[in-house]
Design brief:
Largest sheet: 2 strands, antiparallel
Number of helices: 8
Structural class: mainly alpha
Strand content: 5-15%
Number of strands: 4
Strand order of the largest sheet: 1-2
Order of helices and strands: HHHHHEEEHEHH
Length: about 240
């Protein structure tokens, strides 16, 4: 069971990215169909008879939110797969022990940065979730209960979904939402930053064990050139 949980955690970005890409495709396709088919003069009798929509006003805002999710999740996914861009011209000149030390220093700096981002992301999201943000400029020293809750803030166009109605009693003091509350789309901020921190910790373990000697790999062009040479040799 423990190994299965670890396996799910190891692939959480891939799963969410696949779902997001699918949702963006469906929303965009539905918007095109509604605009150019349902809103056409010939389809007007069918639209009026069946009560079909003639626009998808919330589609653009939804895809913008989903794209933001995609970018934020992509940051941790790129760390996990060592896909961030990097320049290792100087690193390659160093001996193996020095490369390992430099990689550990780099990972430590990235973890420090991720911790700052986790705090900032939580503080920004917390007010929309009716939770107190942390106090302290750099690191949390407690919770600031004097900050006014912004749980009543809604997005502009995306309608409220029935599956989230429980939030009205949980964080909005019983008041109904007309649009989707901002706490839903903004939750990706603390989630993605926690995943980023986790991936940097995992890279740190890999460097410590000696599995890798750097955070990122920058040999994509060399690999592609080698593939081209092999193909030309076969021909």
């Amino acid at each position: 069971m423990k190994e299965r949980k670890l396996s799910i955690l190891d692939h959480v970005e891939e799963f969410l990215i696949a779902v997001i890409l699918g949702a963006m495709t469906l929303i965009t396709f539905a918007g095109v169909v509604i605009r150019y088919v349902f809103d056409s003069p010939g389809a007007k009798p069918m639209v009026e008879a069946w009560g079909l929509p003639t626009n998808l006003l919330w589609g653009l805002e939804a895809t913008v939110f989903l794209f933001a999710w995609l970018v934020l999740l992509g940051a941790s996914y790129a760390v996990k797969t060592h896909s961030h861009l990097g320049v290792d011209a100087i690193v390659n000149l160093l001996s193996a022990p020095l490369r390992r030390i430099l990689a550990l220093v780099s990972v430590a700096l990235c973890i420090f940065f991720s911790l700052l981002m986790v705090k900032a992301a939580y503080d920004y999201w917390a007010v929309f979730a009716d939770l107190p943000p942390t106090s302290g400029r750099w690191f949390p020293t407690g919770f600031d209960t004097t900050v006014r809750s912004q749980s009543f803030y809604e997005v502009q166009d995306v309608p409220m979904l029935g599956m989230f109605r429980f939030l009205e009693d949980l964080i909005n003091y019983g008041d109904a939402y007309e649009k989707l509350p901002k706490v839903i789309p903004y939750i990706i901020l603390p989630i993605s930053m926690l995943l980023l921190l986790l991936r940097f910790l995992q890279v740190g373990v890999q460097v410590w064990r000696g599995d890798v000697d750097r955070i990122v790999a920058s040999h994509e062009v060399e690999d592609e050139l080698e593939e081209v040479r092999e193909q030309l040799g076969e021909n």
